[in-house]
Amino acid sequence: MKTHNQHTGAKGEELAAAYLEKNGYIILNKNIKAAKAEIDILAKFNHILVFVEVKTRNNNFFGYPEESVGMKKEENIARAAAIIREELNHEEEIRFDIISITLNPTVEIHHIEDAFFPGL
Q: Average pLDDT of each block of 10 consecutive residues along the chain (120 residues)?
């Protein structure tokens, strides 16, 4: 049985995937586990492989959703991305995005392209 937070997260990932598709992204996969981390959405935009972290909250009472992505989370995503990139034999550009979603009082979607640069 899913918890309230898991339901919120799943709803956010559905909204994020629909948003990306509407904006010309091709969704390749969702919820990929690698290197003890999870990539919420793997998408392609033109030739760019995009690793998307989705953060969803019911409201902004405790801050904006994207503020919960810290350096440790970025490192985990980068480690997983390196494995996935190698498995796909993708040698072109990659990007790390965050999609921040607030559900109440209205649904707000904020797409942060190039949200972080691992290893810098």
A: 80 96 98 92 96 93 88 93 93 95 94 85
